[in-house]
Amino acid sequence: MRRFQFVFVMFLLSETLGAAAPSSAARPEAVPTAPAGSAHRSFDGGSGRAAVREISTESVKNIIQQYLEGEWSQRVKEVHVAVLDPSDPIKIPPGHAGLRVVPGSNDERMGRRMFQLAVTVNGKPWKTIEVLADITATIDVVSLNRSVKSEELIGAEDVKIASVRIHQLNHPFITDQEEAIGKGAARPLQADTALRPLFLKKPLIVKKGDRVIIEARRGGLSIHTYGVTKSNGYLGETIMVVNVDSGRELRGKIVASGLVQVEF
Question: Does residue 22 have a cis peptide bond before it, meaning omega lies within 30 degrees of 0?
């Protein structure tokens, strides 16, 4: 009886120990993981796993922006690029990557444009990628400090420099203050208006009915008399004036404020 009990106890012990020890087939394998924030990612290449890099859309935007700023450096203050396509990062093989814009025939154009980007890996051509982007730029223009009335002269204290966004290089704005100072407003203009040539005109030197000096010159001889203008006039413009003494109408050129020159 005791021998039977001993054998039975040994049997139970052997079963218990066998169940507690795991077999080699049931042990888990270690799975390699990439470090967080790594620029490399894994993808299924079919027969195995390989590492790839990604070029972000922000990098693509910066490359196009730097290219255009180089092309337009003397004509704009800042270039703005919004990449529309591709919207996802560009996957490239591992290695040292290079990216450049391939010059096109429409380099002067803003708005929606297609760019060709040549990608190299380890110095060798890999692929040319098409990128669709919206392009605008910022320039410094002459703007008004205050509101002005029609025909009112614009002085140095009336203008300032302001930044505006443009959508074409051949913009209509004035960028040199000297082109605005001394001109008259062609129409009423509000403060902060970015000035264009069509908003300005030569200042009126004389107005209709003004009393002016009529100067007649020939060689070294000069004769002066008084006259009355028949119309408004700008510097350098030819207008009709009436000689006050004789009542005769004469055609003369405005050479200064209040001075009309005629020939005889």
Answer: no
Which of 186, 201, 216 terminates a domain? The answer is 201
- Tens digit of each residue's pLDDT (9 = 90 or more) over 101-130: 999 877 788 999 999 999 999 999 999 999
| 253 and 225, same domain (yes or no) | yes
How many Å separate Cα 89 from the centre of its chain? 24
Enclosing domain of residue 136: 50-201
Contacts of 202 (CB under 8 A, 6+ apart): 183, 184, 234, 235, 236, 237
Residue type at position 41: R
Task: For 146-190, write each residue's pLDDT tens digit.
Answer: 999 998 989 999 999 999 999 999 999 999 999 999 899 999 999
Q: Are 165 and 248 found together in one domain?
A: no
What pTM, to 2 d.p., does this model score?
0.61
